[in-house]
Amino acid sequence: MKLASNHLEAFYSVARHLSFSKGAEAIHVTQSAVSQRISALEEHLGTSLLIRDRANLKLTPAGEKLLRFCQYQEQHENELLSELKVTDSKSQSLGGEIRIGGFSSIARSNIVPALAPLLQKHSELGFTLVTKELNDLLPILKNGEVDYLVSNQDPERQDIEAIYLGIEENVLVESKRFQNSLNCLDHDANDVTTGSYFKVSKKDTKNFQRRYVDDVYGLIDGVKHGLGRAVLPKHLIRNEKDFRILRPDVILKIPMYLLFYKQPYYSKLHALVVKDLQHYFQQQFTPHTK
Question: Of 8, 23, 196, 203, most Cβ neighbours within 10 A?
Fold first, then answer.
């Protein structure tokens, strides 16, 4: 049973965008044509691939499996095309795109510099970095928005590889110039980092007023300007001379894992991405056992 390439193309585009209109636009066909192709694919396979409702679009378990297949096919095709384009036996070429997600305290400060040498050497590579809150990371791997994640959780699933990268150490800090002990800064109302820290320190959070500044760099700026205290990663405040660490003995340790779906075959690009991320994180973070 062969799968029509134009049907797979339509499904893959819609699955990546989780939108019929955006998926159609990406492959330059009408939304009606995309819908017809996916319906034909579902009929051919005898199963539903997408759950359609007014609020959003979701993949069924069969749709998730097909998405993985499309991703593998794209990666292998890119690798083959890059090898065929090489005319000088001494030259090296990599095809494809690195699509990776992570939380704000490590995305800019660690993922970008870890992969920068590879991206500088191979200018033909695409690159997409997606930053999300901790609880929102796994869904973007699951729906195919990214191929790699640096997350604080090992999902312990048989289909996902989880490579331990180390521990991010978080401490409570305040400004030496502005002492504001009644306010604590968080990303948003759903941010659990501060609460997790106070559980470690065995201190009640009821007496603290929460203020929100969106991301970790907003937290750093907020502390600088005396808006309150914040729980921050030690690796981001190494050079902040105006910061005071409160209770250096109390540390919130957040594990970091590199996640990706297991594959029967891994491309050269994949091997380099994993190697560079592991090497950089091992250099930046003090080794800890899980």
Answer: 23
